[in-house]
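Appendix B, record 7
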Amino acid sequence: MKLKPIIPFEPVKTDIIPVGDEWISQVKWDGVRLLTYYDGDTVRLFNRKLNERTYHYPELLNITTYCTANSVILDGEVIALGDDGKPSFPTVMRRDGIRRFEKVNDVRKHVPITYMVFDVIYYNGIWMNEQKLTDRMRRLKEIIVPSPFIQVVPSFTNSNELFEVIKAQGMEGIVIKNLNSPYFINGKNDRWQKKKNIQHIHAVVAGVTLRSGIVNSLLLGLYDEQDNLIYIGHGGTGKLKQKERIQLTTLIQPLIVNRSPFINKPERMKDSIWLKPILTVKVTFLEWLPTKRLRHPTVQAFVQVPPSECRFETN
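Structure tokens (predicted):
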């Protein structure tokens, strides 16, 4: 493969939505970031951490059915709908978390995905990352052929109105982008900003509590600048199915340790089982409390994020 995978441009957090003619906004989908690389011969898929996902999503490999480019790098997000008809991270993780590829076709029948494409970084042998977002969006619309599983992400000029719609639908948030912005490979700045309705983080699991011998909550932590693991709250397992909680109860047995890995003192110390801080999860929550604890954290799914990357955000 001639095209080397890149680390994609990331938005920074904001509490204030920027306004002006140079700003547009897009829905922040509760899915998995995925870049498509096509060198004219081969299609390969990689996530934002440069982990290959080519075999997880075979419906995206026949690129000539949905893209007219001779070579291309597309940036987007893979989503899957939950039972409520909204994008669901736990649902899409049933595809993204597959480790035995012989199961892909079977899981594909039960978990259809849609690729929501929002940028083009490379087109017909030319890097477009230094071009303005307006030019890249225009090119994207020219080369993508929409289908039930391929869509170009729509853009909106009234970001505040879009955020109110997102709030009413209980969705994750929006991304606000400057139309004059280039695409910063392996970087982030305020040319792209994200405003969240439902907040989420990746956290380390360093303990559990049981109910009737089965895991019913996870003790969560983040690392600080001194690499201390700080307890941030108990996450309920409401999004995990009973079968998954039983599997987790078995999985943690080799990870049990005698002492708490946290530098601070969690609640319910007496009932907790401590674990080596190896497992990581995506957690949604309402807000950060002044005590650096999460308000109403809920575990969404296990993720393949290194524990060392689960840290307090600096922006």
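Remarks on this record: The chain has two domains: 10-196, 199-309. The longest strand covers residues 199-211.
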